[in-house]
């Protein structure tokens, strides 16, 4: 028996648990494929509508939301940018392929124009695998955030809220990071995932406060 | 080609295993009825011959009869799947089935990329140790990549079928498998599994 055949035979000894998981994924494949397509469309639609809401709010409350000299909210540890200024062109909503990074224009503009290297940007990190969005509660998301944490990045989960049913506010978690411009520019992307960085907002268009960010140990908070 | 596991309850598996265990002759017909198509599908992907695949499936029941007892499998589908897979590989080797096409030749060619030191290397490592290393490696992979790897190299599925089953583009599957083979090679090297 040659080595390829030996390797093929050894793969046959894969654990039942892994095979079971694969067969479940296969059984759910077509359904989940259409689900994922739907999720992707929903993701794009949600992002687009949030941006429109944010832009509208900015137009209305421009003076009260931001300092006149910049879009910086100061915290005890240093300046933090947590929101977009101006409108977000819809063309920026593209799905990153594996190993690729997409910055929404607002994020790119923020870290390219702000010269204060201490500034951190409170961003939502949308993760993708094979062009499909990863569920925030998935093992893959958790593992990737853990990898990034081990590289010294302040990433984890943040809590936002949306409306459900008849105007009921419902909290949900999303992957987020508190990153410097340098960290955003030189983000250590894995070849397994795509990344989209945007400023998150609640359903009413208000920015998510940095207090809602949990860097680690957030699994206990997962819903 | 899902195993019937989703529709077959664990108690049905238990019932069939009990039949084997009690040396009841109906064990074979029950197993064949439950897992015959599943095993045939695995074998046919490898051999691309109805006659050879049927022969391997029939031999599978005999091997299962001889193995249970003393063994008591957890999931019967994977247990018989492993047997038919190995029998089909043996037949492939003995009959040079690659002349007929099928998935085995491209699969073995692809796997040669994952072998430290190249395909001509003498005996890789002890098979049991290799099996353990493969399992450890699979657990390092993202779930999607692991599923695609097993569909291709455990089930021996053609890429088109994997694409259809998982709802993923064939090119993405190829890219994922390519990356995983590279990682497997690195992993085996790191584990000292090179001559």
Quick gist of this model?
The complex is a heterodimer of chains A (223) and B (195). Chain A is an alpha+beta fold and 223 residues long.
What does this structure look like?
- The complex is a heterodimer of chains A (223) and B (195).
- Chain A has two domains: 3-65; 80-219, no CATH class.
- Chain A has six helices and nine strands, in the order H-H-H-E-E-E-H-E-E-H-E-E-H-E-E.
- Chain A has helices spanning 3-11, 16-27, 29-65, 105-113, 139-150, 181-185; strands spanning 73-75, 78-81, 101-103, 120-129, 132-133, 155-164, 168-180, 194-198, 213-214.
- In chain A, strands 1, 2, 3, 4, 5, 6, 7, 8 and 9 form a nine-stranded mixed β-sheet that branches.
- In chain A, strand 6 and strand 7 form a beta hairpin.
- In chain A, helix 2 packs across helix 3 (29-65).
- In chain B, 68% of the residues lie in helices and 0% in strands.
- Chain B has nine helices and no strands.
- The interface between A and B is large, with 42 and 53 residues.
């Amino acid at each position: 028996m040659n080595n390829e055949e030996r390797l093929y035979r050894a793969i046959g000894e894969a654990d039942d648990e892994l095979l079971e998981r694969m067969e479940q994924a296969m059984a759910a494949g077509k359904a989940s494929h259409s689900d994922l397509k739907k999720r992707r469309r929903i993701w794009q639609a949600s992002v687009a509508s949030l941006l429109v809401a944010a832009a509208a709010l900015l137009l209305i409350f421009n003076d009260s939301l931001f300092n006149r000299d910049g879009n910086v909210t100061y915290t005890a540890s240093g300046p933090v940018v947590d929101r977009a200024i101006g409108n977000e062109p819809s063309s920026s909503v593209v799905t990153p392929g594996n190993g690729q990074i997409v910055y929404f224009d607002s994020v790119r503009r923020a870290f390219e124009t702000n010269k204060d290297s201490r500034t951190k940007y409170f961003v939502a990190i949308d993760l993708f695998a094979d062009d499909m969005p990863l569920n925030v509660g998935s093992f893959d998301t958790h593992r990737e955030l853990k990898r990034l944490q081990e590289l010294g990045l302040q990433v984890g989960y943040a809590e936002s809220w949306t409306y459900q049913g008849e105007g009921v506010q419902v909290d949900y978690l999303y992957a987020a990071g508190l990153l410097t411009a340098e960290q955003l520019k030189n983000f250590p992307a894995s070849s397994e995932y795509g990344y989209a960085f945007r400023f998150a907002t609640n359903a009413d268009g208000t920015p998510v406060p940095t207090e809602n960010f949990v860097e680690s140990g957030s699994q206990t908070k997962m819903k | 080609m899902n195993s019937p596991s989703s529709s077959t309850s664990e108690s049905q598996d238990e019932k069939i295993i009990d039949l084997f265990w009690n040396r009841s002759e109906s064990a074979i017909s029950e197993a064949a009825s439950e897992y015959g198509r599943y095993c045939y599908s695995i074998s046919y992907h490898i051999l691309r011959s109805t006659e050879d695949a049927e022969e391997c499936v029939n031999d599978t029941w005999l091997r299962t009869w001889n193995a249970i007892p003393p063994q008591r499998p957890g999931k019967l589908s994977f247990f018989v799947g492993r047997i038919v897979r190995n029998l089909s590989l043996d037949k492939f080797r003995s009959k040079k089935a690659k002349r007929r096409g099928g998935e085995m030749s491209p699969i073995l060619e692809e796997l040669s990329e994952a072998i430290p030191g190249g395909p001509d290397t003498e005996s890789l490592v002890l098979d049991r140790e290799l099996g353990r290393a493969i399992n450890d490696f699979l657990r390092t992979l993202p779930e999607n990549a692991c599923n695609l790897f097993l569909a291709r190299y455990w089930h021996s599925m053609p890429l088109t079928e994997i694409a259809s089953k998982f709802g993923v583009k064939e090119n993405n599957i190829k890219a994922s498998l390519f990356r995983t083979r590279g990682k497997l090679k690195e992993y085996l090297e790191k584990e000292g599994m090179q001559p």
